[in-house]
Amino acid sequence: MSAVAACSGSSGGSAGSSAGSASADSSGPAQILVVASTNVWGDVVEQVGGDHVQVTSVISDPGADPHAYQANAQNQLALSKAALVVENGGGYDDFMQTMLASGSSGAPVINAVTVSGLTAADGELNEHVWYDLPGTTKVADAAAEQLAALDPGDAADYRANAAAFDKAVAALSAQVQTIKAAHGGTPVAITEPVPLYLIEAAGLVNVTPEQFSSAIENETDVPAAVMDQTLKLFTDKQVAALVYNEQTSGPQTQALVDAAKANGIPVVPVTEILPDGQDYLTWMQSNIQALSRALGG
Predict the structure, then answer these.
(1) Residues in CB range of 65: below 8 A, 6 or more apart
(2) Range list of β-strands (E), the chain
(3) Do 281 and 239 belong to one domain?
(4) Which of 10, 44, 84, 279 is most exposed, with minimal Cβ within 10 Å?
């Protein structure tokens, strides 16, 4: 799919006048209806759209696995009414492709992987692109332009909000560069590739056996020899921290967490879905601070 597939999406017109618009109250202005695959992208669009948008995020439960999620009739109905759709892409949220293929939505689609410009490394794409800060600003900018096209009267608001978001993300990127300046080249371990963009931006080196993280991501058993090799990273204190996805914790990832703690190696939990009570900016701020603390500031 193209980054923004311009189709016959409905614009936000007068209240209730067309699909894709809704009224905040009986006399208030129409809001542009947006459907996002996860609450991460839903929050980014909300920060750009402000009060002009009404966002439905298909997945907001930290316990849900986007890779395996099966869309339901309620999701399909929301999509059919949307004026703008935001998906992650890259095979992460294929349920969106399944719904879009049904033809129930003619709205323009922002594909975060495509918009980010990130490509496969060593033949395999890390689809967790929201951990790439520059890529996320590109999605925010794309949302601003799509919302401006749907609602030209409020275009200045969307672009100003996107600029403010980009500035806040740039400040986060500066903090990541501070980590890189102090700890560049430091070896760390992961359980799966979720935080890799952030880790690499901080100049850290992932030394986890690829067979381990691939098995965890694909929900298959880690071979015994690979498990032993991975555990030695902690027993031999070869890494400065373990960054793990706490949403997909199982016996083998827990074994790594236990080994890290037993050997005094800091553990940094991360998630794929936006935690309750946080927005994208506060969430990334907490992740960066946790990583900095783990490495000794």
Answers:
(1) 247, 248
(2) 4-5, 21-23, 30-38, 53-59, 84-87, 109-111, 187-190, 205-206, 242-245, 267-270
(3) yes
(4) 279
Instruction: Tell me the chain's radius of gyration from C-alpha atoms.
Output: 20
Residue 109: beta bridge partners? 5, 85
Please give the model's pTM, rounded to 2 decimal places. 0.89
Do residues 117 and 235 both lie within one domain? no
pLDDT digits (tens, 9 = 90+) for 107-159: 999 999 999 999 987 678 999 999 999 999 999 999 999 999 999 999 999 99
At 200 the pLDDT is 97
CATH assignment of the domain containing 111: 3.40.50.1980
Is 107 part of a structural domain of the chain?
yes
Range of the domain at 63: 4-153
Rounded to the nearest 10 degrees, the angle between the axes of helix 224-235 and helix 210-217 is 110
3-state helix, strand, coil in the chain (%, to 5): 50, 15, 35
Q: Cα(291)–Cα(295) distance, rounded to whole angstroms?
A: 6
Q: Total domain count for the chain?
A: 2
Classify residue 60: in a domain, yes or no. yes
Q: Which long-range contacts (C-beta less than 8 Å, at least 24 apart) are formed by 26-33?
A: 32/83, 32/84, 32/147, 32/150, 32/151, 33/78, 33/81, 33/82, 33/83, 33/84
Torsion of CA 158, 162, 165, 167, to 10 degrees: -130
Handedness of CA 44, 120, 272, 261 (dihedral sign): negative
Find the helix or strand (DSSP H, E) in which 213 lies.
helix 210-217
Amino acid at 189: A
Residues 6+ apart with CB under 8 A from 37: 57, 58, 59, 66, 86, 87, 88, 92, 93, 95, 96
